[in-house]
Amino acid sequence: MALVVLVIAGTVTAGERFASIDNLMVVLSLASVIGVLSIGMTFVITAGGIDLSVGSVLGLASVWATTLSTQAYAEAFGWGVIVLTALLVGLGAGLLNGILIAYGRVVAFIATLAMMVAARGFAELIAQRRTHVVDVDSFLDTFRGNLLGVPVIVWIFAAVAVGGWFLLNRTTFGRRTVAVGGNPEAARLAGIKVKRHTMYIYALCGLTAGIGAVMMLARTTAGSSTNGMLYELDAIAAVVVGGTLLVGGRGTIVGTVLGVLIFATLTNVFIQNNLDSSVQAIAKGAIIIVAVLLQQRFSRKNATS
User: Fold this and answer.
1) At residue 304, does pLDDT exceed 70?
2) What is the biggest distance separating any 2 CA atoms in the chain, rounded to whole angstroms?
3) Are 82 and 143 in contact (CB under 8 A)?
4) Alpha-carbon gap, residue 299 to 303, rounded angstroms
5) Which residues, including other chains, have CB under 8 Å from residue 45's CB and lie 6 or more apart?
6) Mind spelling out the 3-state secondary structure of the chain?
7) In angstroms, rounded to a whole number, what is the distance separating the alpha carbons of residues 127 and 105?
8) pLDDT one-digit tens code per residue, 20-74
9) Is 113 in contact with 120 (CB distance < 8 Å)?
10) Alpha-carbon separation of residue 145 from 2, 138, 265 (angstroms)
11) What is the pLDDT of residues 165-212, one digit of tens each?
């Protein structure tokens, strides 16, 4: 409903500038990187956790994947080297988060907060506070192009969303994720290895940060320690607005995609009408509060029914 209202508001206030195919592609491209991060965050929150590090891990992966040595290997062996490096950095950071939380018994908020700070600092050390420009033509030709008139990064977002939906709704992994978030002790008694599953979930979330780094490199053609700054907050907001319970036990990939599109469309409407970004931030905050209040209301209603 909120997305429909925003589309109507954009069409009425900005006319053809908003309701054009080109602007639709802009909105989808704007939503793509945050969208991929949000898919991973959906699994974490559904399992009753939180990950504050995805934005910093994205920045670290983008820097590591664009160092001179990585790009030299990419020139010799193909753009896959850049992609593989970004994915491995994201996966490694997520796996470390998972080990600390599941086996080190560190509270998820603290463990991922530490990773957020450390990953950003590590990225600054590698980059020396400079921007790494991507010079590998094969990478740029592959990921900055269009397929059937749609940017490649939008296709990547769509593929990750479909994969995430299938994993959460049609596999044992997804059912275990919901069970762990709903009641970890009951899940353990049912035979689920809760610690190992928790580690896998955070590794998955880190992997989506690595995918987001590849998309960020395609969009900006540069690796920087500032890439992904505060993206974790946008991802959490999109997941909550989409209907995934913050306390865990219920998650929806479709809702998350809609949540991402709501914020991307809201940003676009404000840009098209040349409105103050401060008002935009207030509107985003109001949407988040309304979503949380609705969640609490429905939770109480379900508990009493």
Assistant:
1) no
2) 63
3) no
4) 6
5) 181, 236, 239, 240, 244, 245, 246, 248, 251
6) CHHHHHHHHHHHHHHHHCCCHHHHHHHHHHHHHHHHHHHHHHHHHHCCCCCCCHHHHHHHHHHHCCCHHHHHHHHHHCCHHHHHHHHHHHHHHHHHHHHHHHCCCCCHHHHHHHHHHHHHHHHHHHHCCCCEECCCHHHHHHHCCEECCEEHHHHHHHHHHHHHHHHHHHCHHHHHHHHHHHCHHHHHHCCCCHHHHHHHHHHHHHHHHHHHHHHHHHHHCEECCCCCCCHHHHHHHHHHHHCCCCCCCCCCHHHHHHHHHHHHHHHHHHHHCCCCHHHHHHHHHHHHHHHHHHHHHHHHHHHHC
7) 32
8) 888 888 889 889 999 999 999 999 999 999 999 999 999 999 999 999 889 999 8
9) no
10) 31, 11, 23
11) 999 999 999 999 999 998 989 999 989 999 999 999 999 999 999 999
Residue 20 structure tokens = 């054009």
Q: Which pair of tokens denotes residue 293?
A: 């209040």
pLDDT level of residue 305 (50, 70, 90 thresholds): low
Question: Model confidence over 69-115: pLDDT tens digits?
Answer: 899 998 889 899 999 999 999 999 999 999 999 999 999 999 999 99
Return d(Cα 183, Cα 194) in angstroms, integer. 10
Neighbours of 23 (CB within 10 A): 17
